[in-house]
Amino acid sequence: MGWQPIKHYPVLAASGTLGPKLCEGDRQVPEGIYRIKSLNPNSAYHLSLELDYPNAFDLRQAERDGRNNPGSAICIHGKAVSVGCLAMGDTAIEELYSPWCTWVKTR
């Protein structure tokens, strides 16, 4: 059985350009399937979900490409501004902010 989306959420803001995340500070948003690593109720962006980026796949790709720092601290959060994360707006992040939400797909 494959992955079945439960719901799609629009991204209100994301920095960077179309293309993969390559290194810390490039302001790109990674594409892939990530676990929710932690919930932050005290985020400066209303609420936030920290993703487990880089995961094992991202680390293997970085090593294969000779990159030693693929980045970190990627979050899905409220508000409508972003510097390398995914800004979903306050209403959407309130729906997603749950200990039952454990996996997300970004693209």
**Contiguous helical run count:** 2
Estimated structural class:
alpha+beta
Main β sheet profile: 5 strands, mixed
* Rg over CA atoms: 14 Å
Question: Low-confidence parts lasting 5 or more residues at pLDDT below 50?
Answer: none
Count of all domains? 1
Biggest sheet strand order reads 4-3-2-1-5
* Assembly classification: single chain
Helix content: 10-25%
N- and C-termini, Cα separation: 21 Å
Residue share in β-strands: 15-25%
Strands, total number: 5
H-E string: EEHEEHE
- Taken from the alpha-carbon principal axes, the silhouette is globular
Can you tell me about this structure?
- This protein is α+β, with helices and mostly antiparallel strands and 107 residues long.
- It has helices at residues 56-64, 90-96, and strands at residues 32-40, 48-51, 75-77, 86-87, 103-106.
- It is globular and about 40 Å long.
- The relative contact order is 0.28.
- The model has no long low-confidence stretch (mean pLDDT 90).
Compact overview of the structure:
This protein is an alpha+beta fold and 107 residues long. Helices cover 15% and strands 21% of the residues. A five-stranded mixed sheet has the order 4-3-2-1-5.
SSE blueprint:
Blueprint: E1 32-40, E2 48-51, H1 56-64, E3 75-77, E4 86-87, H2 90-96, E5 103-106
Parallel strand pairs: 3-4
Antiparallel strand pairs: 1-2, 1-5, 2-3
Any descriptors?
single chain; about 110 residues; alpha+beta; five-stranded mixed beta sheet; 2 helices; about 15% helix; globular
